[in-house]
Specification:
Radius of gyration: 23 Å
Number of helices: 13
CATH topology of the largest domain: Aminopeptidase
InterPro entries: Amidohydrolase, Aminobenzoyl-glu_utiliz_pB, Bact_exopeptidase_dim_dom, Peptidase_M20, Peptidase_M20/M20A_hydrolases, Peptidase_M20_dimer
Oligomer: single chain
Protein name: Amidohydrolase
Organism: Neolewinella litorea
Structural class: alpha/beta
CATH architecture of the largest domain: 3-Layer(aba) Sandwich
Distance between the termini: 34 Å
Order of helices and strands: HHHEEEEEHEHEEEHEEHEHHEHEHHH
Largest sheet: 6 strands, mixed
Shape: globular
GO molecular function: dipeptidase activity; para-aminobenzoyl-glutamate hydrolase activity
Pfam families: M20_dimer, Peptidase_M20
CATH class of the largest domain: Alpha Beta
Length: 479
């Protein structure tokens, strides 16, 4: 069954602005509304490209072209990453950075239909909404640039095009390269099923591909001559799964077998498993990772195989900055959430029917902003924004680009991200980030307070060292 919701792609409706906004703010918000359809067309193109980490050639080029056309100076291929770039406007201090992501997730595709309908023309999908992330952040950077010109505001607005967030840690290499060293504050956002601007942390994460090497033989006529690399992988997985009992409750360890052999009657001489190891504390995440390595070493010894591993990425836990988050929350509350029209509500209701517990979903929550919270212990996922937050005061928000109740990394998230529901959430984010950046440009005391908070949280002896060490960017990790 295919359901068409063509009205979801109608023009973005501009709602009257509240009197709570000042003249310059009103002009910025009106500009974003006027260009909302254009910004969404950029996001939709990236949604269609569906390019995975470090392979986002078209997506990166499109955003670079968009920013260059608006007068930004673009430096491409930074940090030895072909799809990473920095686009700047202005001169001097303060320097306010805005992050933009654009990578898709492999192995999951979906049309913009509210029922399951896989796409066959691509092998990945924007199940985490990074197409909206990149386009929405660029929209905010452009709006702030115009405001700076109109009001003769000094300083620099800088857009960071950051590839491969999904397990490739693109930002970590950019941090390691020193690209954030002169920045006073960084702003980011992420698609979600709700609207919030908490001062919240995340899970630190270290990942690696473990590769086992054995000896091929006929599995029936000469098994004694073989040594199965797959046995090594399975033995490792078994030991790691037993280890879960003896890890702290907050630990998260998961894996996928990426290579397991080609035919049952051929003992595989090569097998590979890809592991993520997470914890709210980056030091404990690193310790847990070392234990996983020991499991791999034991598995190789016991199965008569050999093993090596390649660290793919490592990301710090987010360091929340309350001084900045309070401002972001205030601005999000002023902008408000996402209001559905009749067609969008019908789409959302169909999506809800496919969710695990539809009776608990409240569609009205898309229009609400969650009360402000300070959450210092990370839960849920990980992000390479974490590394940025340890070197420069960083603040973020989430907006309802998915239907309430939707999980990220799902086909339902891809579907909504291809419709005006995703567009509306993206515009809420662009407006909130713009207002926050404007406030930071005009408030040096706030920037000083945020920097002091960062320094106190890190401790006086903090020295940044990437969890992934000195390895080069893994440009082929999705091959």
């Amino acid at each position: 069954m295919k359901i068409a919701f063509l009205l979801l792609f109608s023009s973005f409706i501009v709602l009257p602005l509240s009197a709570q906004f000042s003249g310059p703010e009103t002009k910025v918000l009106q500009e974003i509304d006027r260009n909302a359809d254009d910004y969404f067309q950029v996001a939709k193109k990236i949604w269609d490209f569906a390019e995975v980490g470090y392979q986002e050639t078209q997506s990166s080029a499109l955003l670079q072209e968009m920013l260059a056309a608006e007068g930004f100076t673009v430096e491409a291929g930074v940090a030895e990453i072909p799809t990473a770039f920095v686009a700047s406007f202005g001169n001097g201090k303060p320097v306010i950075g805005i992050l933009g992501e654009f990578d898709a997730l492999p192995g999951i595709t979906q049309t913009s239909s509210p029922v399951r309908e896989e796409r066959t023309d691509v092998h990945a999908g924007h199940a985490c909404g990074h197409h909206l992330f990149g386009a929405g952040s660029a929209a905010a950077a452009i709006a702030v640039k115009h405001w700076m010109e109109d009001n003769q505001v000094s300083g620099t607005v800088r857009f960071y095009g950051t590839p491969a967030e999904e397990g490739g840690a693109g930002k970590v290499y950019m941090v390691r390269e020193g690209l954030f060293d002169d920045v006073d504050a960084v702003i980011h956002w992420h698609p979600a099923d709700k609207n919030s601007a908490h001062a919240a942390s995340s899970l630190a994460n270290k990942s690696a591909k473990f590769r086992f090497y054995g000896v091929s033989a006929h599995a029936a006529s000469a098994p004694q001559n073989g040594r199965s690399a797959l046995d090594g992988v399975e033995a490792m997985n078994y030991m790691v799964n037993m280890m879960r009992e003896h890890m702290t409750m907050e630990s998260r360890t998961h894996y996928v077998i990426t290579r397991g052999g080609n035919a049952p009657n051929v003992i595989p001489d090569f097998a590979e498993v890809f592991y993520y190891v997470r914890h709210p504390d980056m030091e404990i995440a690193a310790q847990n990772f070392d234990r996983v390595v020991k499991c791999a070493e034991g598995a190789a010894l016991g199965t008569g195989t050999t093993m090596d591993y390649e660290v793919i990425h490592g990301a710090y836990n987010l360091l929340p900055n309350v001084a900045l988050a309070e401002i972001m929350h205030e601005n999000l509350s002023r902008v408000g959430g996402v209001e559905y029209n009749a067609e969008e509500k019908a789409f959302a209701e169909t999506i809800v029917e496919s969710l695990p517990d539809p009776g608990k979903v409240d569609l009205a929550s898309a229009g609400e902003v969650e009360p402000f919270e300070v959450i210092r212990k990370g839960t849920g996922g990980s992000t390479d924004v974490g590394d940025v937050s340890w070197v420069v005061p960083t603040v973020g928000l989430r907006t309802a680009t998915y239907v309430p109740g939707t999980s990220a990394h799902s086909w339902q998230a891809i579907a909504a991200g291809g419709t005006s529901i995703g567009q509306k959430g993206m515009i809420v984010a662009a407006k909130t980030m713009s207002l926050t950046a404007m406030e930071l440009f005009q408030n040096p005391e706030l920037l000083q307070k945020a920097r002091q908070e960062l320094t106190e949280q890190r401790g006086k002896n903090f020295e940044y060292q990437a969890l992934l060490g000195d390895r080069e960017p893994p440009l082929d990790y999705r091959d």
